[in-house]
Amino acid sequence: MIYLITAALSITTLSLIMRKATLNTDTLWGVILGNYLTAATITAAITLTSPKTTPTPFTITLGAITGITYTAGMYLNLTLMGKRGAAITASMIQLAVIIPITTSVLIYHETITTTQLTGIALAITSLPLLASKPGQKLEIDKTILPMILLTILVVGFSQTSSKILIQSGLQAENNYFFLAIFTSASLLVAPLAYRNRKQLKKTDTFYGIGVGTFNLLSNRALLLALTTLPGAIVFPVSSAGSLLMVTIAAIILFKERVSRANIAGIILTLVAVILINI
């Protein structure tokens, strides 16, 4: 249970650090670069101290491609946080699970339960509510909705790539897979950060290290939690629990404004996440 609590708290802390960064940076690229350099360094250390395996070209290639979508997803995530805050963005990101589920059904011919279908329907229903303007009854922000959908697609693909690795029987190479992701992302972001170097702040490095550390910590804690608890408990509790904590913390700490429609969307997302992960 301690690993499950650690995972939920890490996900919450990660979101709050990202939100704080959007309020105190002039460009997002320094934070993103610090995130991936930190993640790559820690992953390299873990890989070197783990039992040695020889990665296949497929694993490295898949990781390198996923690094591109990770970068796009992180940029969109931070941009959405800057525009709509942590509470709404955290809910949106949870909906990305629809993509790997759809892939599992269409490509790998897996079956889903009626409960999960209900969760997917609720998730789709929550989208216009989450995209509605703050302070309005139900007026969809047409500039935000396309960004939400793009973020869900990009983050969803990133999650799907892990599914592809497992389905290919290469889960033993996961350290090399993530090392390829973070290295690829670092190489991609470095020129962008350099181009915007005049806007970089010293604090960007600290935000980046914080994001990278808690990003890895949440993933590792989830893996450890799954070794002692069934997935039917781990995924709903970690997802719904962290979403609830992020929402409460964002409203209290950052005074984020959410309309009644937004709150309804967050509640629907909470229920959807629990149903989808059962």
Kindly describe this structure.
With 278 residues, this protein is mainly alpha-helical. The protein has ten helices and no strands. The longest helix has 38 residues, at 57-94. The mean pLDDT is 87.
List keywords for this structure.
278 residues; mainly alpha
Strand elements, count: 0
User: What is the molecular shape?
Assistant: globular
What count of domains describes the coordinates?
A: 1
- Regarding quaternary structure, what we see is single chain
Taken as a percent bin, the fraction of beta residues is under 5%
Low-pLDDT residue spans: none
Secondary structure: elements and pairs:
Elements: H1 2-24, H2 29-49, H3 57-94, H4 98-106, H5 114-130, H6 145-167, H7 174-195, H8 202-228, H9 231-253, H10 260-277
Compact description:
By secondary structure, this protein is mainly alpha-helical.
